[in-house]
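During the no-cost extension, the postdoctoral fellow (Dr. R.K.) reprocessed legacy sequence entries with the updated structure-token encoder. One reprocessed record is reproduced below for audit purposes.
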Amino acid sequence: MSDETNHRIHTEHTLDQGPLSETLSRRLSGSELNTLLLKVFRERTRAGNASDLLKRYHDNRFVKPAEVSALDLKRLELDVLEIANAHAFDPIQLSPAAPLGSCSVVATVDQNKVISALRGTELVADATNMLALHISDGLKSGELDNRSRHVRLSTTHRHVRAQRFHAPGMVPHFHVFCMVSSGMDQGSYSFEIPSFWEHIRVYRDIFDRLFHSSISIEIQVRQGYADPEGLVRRVAGAGKTESVDVTVSLHSDKTNNAYYEGLQFTLVTEIQGNTYAIGDGGFVNWTQQLIGNKKQRMLISAIGLERLTPFYRR
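Re-encoded structure tokens follow.
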């Protein structure tokens, strides 16, 4: 265990034992806590100098540039968004900030994996959560309507994650392409089946047109639906009627997974002789929680763009 980890654990243990943690987290209002923290950080920065700032840059793993061609990445972003737009997934530019708890409140993600910030915000760690919030806010205000026509959004975004990754090439910040579909339950999986294959069509076209590669889909059964095995069979079996020529494999193991509901899929592609599990997706209950309507349905999916950029050529 590193000295940094030992120090963090010791600090968290010390703060949790006394009244300070209770006062900061529960007794202060949001505005009071924000005012206090703003003063703390203002005083800390006043006490620093240019040499300290440079050292913080050198030591902080979250602030270093990515080792990727910026031009290739931007071109790839534009191409995937244009392909998604052609499939009726409207592109949207998200903020780099999210409301505090955007991942942990509805998606069961530990808040320690997210970089929390001031003014009731956190750095975006998952753009699909932000798309879900945007859609839910629009549905509640009446600006959006998903009853007769599904709401379909897409975006590219740079995610920041606080946990340490030990796999080669895994870094604290990375670029993704995301899609979200939102609709209402009207029986017979009338949302689940078409929305799933709409996502797959987009990915099929992305990999065919930009990387000249095929994709395959691995589907895992997840809890959360009354009949998840039936859901998976119906969704997978609709591939031929939906005219999407991709290989689909089923995995019936209902692993306890609180993130996805009913169905999770993994997107696999082969590029230059190497196989990559490049993205995933599935159904989530986030709009049900946010709006308080059990009839709401949502499908999310994403692929990593950074790993694909070296293979991308216009």
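DSSP finds ten helices and ten strands in the chain. The first strand starts at residue 90 and ends at 91. The remaining legacy entries will be reprocessed before the final report is submitted.
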